[in-house]
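In response to a reviewer's request, we include the raw inputs and outputs for one of the modeled complexes. The two entities were modeled together in a single run.
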Amino acid sequence: MRITSPKVWAVALVATVLSTPIYAADADATADRMAQLEARLIAMEARLAEAEAGPQAASNVSEARMVELETRLAEAEQETKEVKALAATGGNVSQASILGNAATFDILANSAWRNLRWTQAEQWEAVRPGASMAVVVEALGHPPRSVDSLKPRVDEVFYYETSIRDDGNSLRGKISFRKGKVLTVQKPNFKANKAAQ
Amino acid sequence: MKNKIAIASAFLAAASFSTAEIVVNEFLSFEGFVDSSYSHTDGEVDFRGNGNDGDFNENSFQVDQVEISWLFNFDTVTAQVDLQYEGDSNDGNGEDGELVEQAFVNYALANGGVVTAGRYASMLGFEAFEPTGLYQYSTAYAIGNLGDASILPSYAQGVKYTIEGDTTFFGISIQDQAYDLGSDRLGGNEGDSSHAVEVAGALDLGNGVSLFLGGVLEDGEDDNSYAINAYATYETGAWLFAAEINFGDLANGTDISNEVSLLVDEGPGGADAGDGDTFTTNEDVLQFLLMANYAYSEQASVTGRITYSEHDADVAEEVGAFTDTFEAEVTKLTLAHNYAFTDNLLLVTEVSYVEGDWDLAGFDNGDADFDGTQLAVELLFSF
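The model returned the following structure tokens for the whole complex.
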């Protein structure tokens, strides 16, 4: 579904009236879920460490099992990051103006499948000129939009943005690549976004 | 622009699944472009031996092509459908401006290979099929009003297997046709039928040097056609150099030989040799291009290109027993400038000069020299 300003306003209005307790409940549920996930993650890390450390375990645990554990661990880590992002956003919603948070609200309302890591400022720390495309995707997730650049010295551009339109409340980041390496990085203005909230 | 060069072009053609896209949801994305241009062409044909020379000049101002690609992603299965408007897509018969340019599905194998089935672009050729991948407005072997001298195939329907490593690429395609000797059948015994095999390989030698070699053979019911394509690219700093050579034998002849034989047959010299239209067969072609591109700023580049094409064909007539031979040489010089306003809006300006001659010895006054100049301005928006 295409997100338009009227829709966001309408959703925001309804959400303002109705959802404060719901968000509070959501925030509690999210916190519980995060705690559960972190507990699972710790347990999984411990099991993995055991499997890797013990010589007897090495003989009993197959390579496939190790791979499976590592995959599950990676998934759990990613899920935890995203739940943290959701939790952080949920906490802000009840305290701040809905309009100030409209950009993130867009994602939560209609694009929950999207990877949200890029909405966290710390996730951008690994994205520097010279970093590989794989590092960028690992840190920020796949971009919601990308284009084969028509500029002669740029191959591809990743856009991380909550809205294509520049409505002042959106988070907008942009990374250009040349031969698979980061050329330039334009980070989202997290400070301005927080100030707007 | 650097969109389709050397090994990268082979890989893109192989995978045929771009990463540039507007993501709609987990499994559907879109990408595409709008290409519009203004061009002015001046030309002259000088028939040797009579005074029936012809001058022509014409303008063109139109949306040349609009394309939207639907990209589907279901983990190991991906698919792409390219819908396009290309000048005469709405001509009613769909022969010259197909609405569905490509439609194929990819299945990724565990060994890293990809099996593709459907309608897809040929792996051969240095130059891209779409304007978003070109360094100029015109393609290398397009000779204005006289048609296209290229012997490289375009789109076909079939199944192909491709595999690529960090520095290598290999692909093989079994398809219904390459030169339309009997398309849409892939063998069988109903009427004209054919099948074609296309093979391609590329190697990145490092230090900006890459090589590509490929070939295609179409086995028709009565005739065969084949073409070999090889190119090398060298990229250093802001410079890109490319060299390509093609040679082949086309049972149906190229666009340019058929256009010229018709032009002479029905031309102002009254050279009509018989009752029917002429056409060319068994055309041997040798052609090459040399290109240099220099990106002199973050947003702009200039490109120079030299194209040469040599043709030798038999000429026949639909009605009657008239036969002739066709020989032609064409040289094209192109200078283009690209300026990118943004990552997805590009202005291309080009001037190209074409000169050559043809010999149709069987016609009265069938030999001629020709030359022409084309100026073009193109605006390209991609998303």
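As requested, we also summarize the result in words. Chain B touches chain A through 31 residues (CB under 8 Å). The longest strand of chain B covers residues 54-74.
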